[in-house]
């Protein structure tokens, strides 16, 4: 089965910066030779994540507030003793949400819901350029 690997990148703000990458992923699928299959979207790094959501500013705030209740960034985590970078909560949030997502596509069109977008989330305490690997697999 044919496989194409591509890389995209986005700049995401610190502490739960959410970036809509749907169009970027869709463009790469459309530019591939593969017509029907799946695309795996994988965020490189241990403080970033990939998910889907209805991408709108109030829901982004809700997600940030929910994660702050579940995993407060200013808590004194054991990880801080390792590197002194005080991003233990960032690592835990990334662990919770996860680094990847697989999306099916048919005739080069992602099979997402009307209000469903693919997002990259930066949980680190600093703004970062996030590299994202796309692995497109399927039939010509």
Throw out a few tags for this protein:
140 residues, alpha+beta, Jelly Rolls, five-stranded antiparallel beta sheet, three-stranded antiparallel beta sheet, elongated, YjbQ-like_sf, UPF0047_YjbQ-like, Secondary thiamine-phosphate synthase enzyme
The total tally of domains equals 1
CATH fold group: Jelly Rolls
Would you list the SSEs in sequence order as H and E? EEHEEHHHEEEE
Q: Outline the low-pLDDT stretches.
A: none
Shape: elongated
Strand content: 35-45%
| Quaternary organisation of the protein chains | single chain
Family: Belongs to the UPF0047 family.
InterPro entries: UPF0047_YjbQ-like, YjbQ-like_sf
Protein name: Secondary thiamine-phosphate synthase enzyme
Q: Can you describe this structure?
A:
The longest helix has 14 residues. By secondary structure, the chain is an alpha+beta fold. The chain starts with a strand and ends with a strand. It is elongated. It has one domain: Sandwich (Jelly Rolls). The strands form 2 sheets. Strands 1-8-3-5-6 form a 5-stranded antiparallel β-sheet, with helices on one face. This is Secondary thiamine-phosphate synthase enzyme.
Task: Give the SSE layout.
Elements: E1 3-12, E2 17-20, H1 22-31, E3 36-43, E4 48-53, H2 57-70, H3 80-83, H4 88-97, E5 100-106, E6 109-110, E7 117-122, E8 128-139
Antiparallel strand pairs: 1-8, 2-7, 3-5, 3-8, 4-7, 5-6
């Amino acid at each position: 089965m044919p496989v194409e690997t591509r890389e995209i990148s986005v700049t995401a703000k610190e502490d739960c910066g959410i970036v809509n990458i749907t169009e970027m992923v869709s463009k790469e699928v459309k530019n591939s030779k593969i017509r029907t299959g799946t695309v795996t979207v994988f965020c490189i790094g241990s403080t970033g994540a990939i998910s889907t959501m209805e991408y709108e500013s109030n829901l982004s705030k809700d997600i940030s507030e929910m994660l702050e209740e579940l995993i407060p960034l200013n808590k004194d985590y054991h990880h801080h003793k390792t590197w002194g970078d005080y991003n233990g909560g960032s690592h835990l949030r990334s662990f919770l949400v996860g680094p990847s997502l697989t999306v099916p596509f048919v005739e080069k069109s992602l099979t997402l819901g009307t209000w469903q977008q693919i997002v990259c989330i930066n949980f680190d305490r600093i703004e970062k350029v996030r590299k994202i690997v796309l692995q497109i697999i399927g039939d010509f």
